[in-house]
Design a protein that fits this description.
There is one protein chain. The chain is an alpha/beta fold. It has eight helices and nine strands. The longest helix is centred in the C-terminal third of the chain and has 17 residues. The chain is globular. The two termini are 27 Å apart.
Length: 265
């Protein structure tokens, strides 16, 4: 059987993040990618100039169309934009019961532009987090979900991860890209002891789509039959190489994209 993953997220017109990054990531892992678009963004490497939310009923129609025909091995949820979309996604996934759900709680773009309405954060916590096999917040997102300050130490990061677990998800991957120091360390927090995954911090401004792509890489691994820790380890190695290769590109005048296909060219 062909491994299939579904991304439920927003579209990035510049191709570096969102749906476009997710589909590139799935392809890089040999996974067939399907999509349900929650919002259109007018966006480039310098920022987001407009967001047009897809009506919730049509988000539902896209998800139902995919699940009624394709054998979806894993779902990645990215930008959800508004509370109505969150409710539609939660209801659809409760019906279809996918084996794996990777929730990337996208709130702010790399450029600093807000992608999730403030009033929708509570709905994301209550409706989507309990469905998630793993959530993949960065340090600011983890703090925002808990309405706390950004964690500064490994102990604080693990403590926030444990509190996020109490909201219903089965595991938490807190991404360390927004941290400091020579290494960027991600923390996988679940029922087993915390797994710390470190990689050298790479000096580049071309990081557009990093968070989207990492969570999609985890979903691709799960769709391919890997267990969560293996999927996260492989995703971490791949994203580090994609960031290290990003400067091969010359795309845009802001935060350029990572190199999803660094293994191939």
């Amino acid at each position: 059987m062909t491994a299939v993953a579904l991304t439920i997220a927003g579209s990035d017109s510049s191709g570096g993040a969102g749906i476009q990054a997710d589909l590139k990531t799935f392809a890089a892992f040999g996974v067939y990618g399907a999509s349900a678009i929650t919002a259109l963004t007018a966006q480039n490497t310098k920022g987001v100039t407009g967001i047009h939310a897809v009506p919730a009923a049509f988000v539902t129609a896209q998800i139902d169309a995919v699940f009624s025909d394709l054998d979806v091995g894993a779902v990645k949820i990215g930008m959800v934009a508004q509370a109505e979309s969150i409710e539609a996604i939660a209801s659809a996934l409760a019906r279809w019961k996918p084996r794996h759900v990777v929730l990337d709680p996208v709130m702010v773009a790399t450029s600093g532009d807000r992608l999730l309405a403030a009033e929708a954060v509570a709905a994301l916590r209550a409706r989507l987090m309990p469905l998630a096999s793993v959530i993949t917040p960065n340090l600011p997102e983890a703090a925002a979900l808990l309405e706390e300050k950004v964690a500064r130490s490994e102990a604080e990061i693990e403590s926030q991860g444990r509190r996020l677990l109490s909201l219903g998800c089965r595991a938490v991957l807190i991404k360390g890209g927004h941290g400091e120091g020579a290494e960027s360390t991600d923390y996988l927090i679940g029922a087993d002891p915390t797994v710390a995954l470190a990689a050298p911090r790479i000096a580049t401004r071309n990081t557009h789509g990093t968070g989207c792509s990492l969570s999609s890489a985890v979903a691709a691994g799960l769709a391919n039959g890997e267990d969560l820790e293996a999927a996260v380890r492989n995703a971490k190695s791949w994203i580090s190489a994609a960031i290290a290769s990003a400067d091969r590109f010359s795309v845009g005048h802001g935060h350029g994209p990572i190199h999803h296909f660094h293994k191939f060219y």
